[in-house]
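Here is one chain, start to finish.
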Amino acid sequence: MSRYTTQVKREERPWRIHPIWRGIGCLWLILLPVMSYAASWLIVRQVLFTPGFRAFMDRIFYSSGVDLLPQNMYNQVILPSIQLNQFYLDFNVLLRLLPGQPLYNIDFLLWLTMVFIGFGVSSLVYALLYRSFGPPKSPYEAVEQRYRKGPYG
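Its structure:
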């Protein structure tokens, strides 16, 4: 037996994670994309498709040579259809199940943006709450040490 092998007993943590937090995480994973889709649908229908807003955007961005929302962003999303021998799969049936007819490219882009922003903000909020209300610091965590520079600190 070598002199460097030791049996280290693992310490049991003084705190445990409550199982309800797993359920809240799963619920949030489902709920945030649904809320983002609803918000993007409302924003596109209420703001972007009003004639005054489009004229305002044209006046600002076309004069500078930048097209913020090109015309192809207002096209409908069309999913491909696949034919395998005698079988025909039409994926546009999935789009007909969505409540807000029709689905535009800008809807999808805005939905994806809101999902990323939502998960990012929720991660930041979780990190701040965990740091302030989480378990105590472990002995392996880096702790700031102050060294005295002189007789008066």
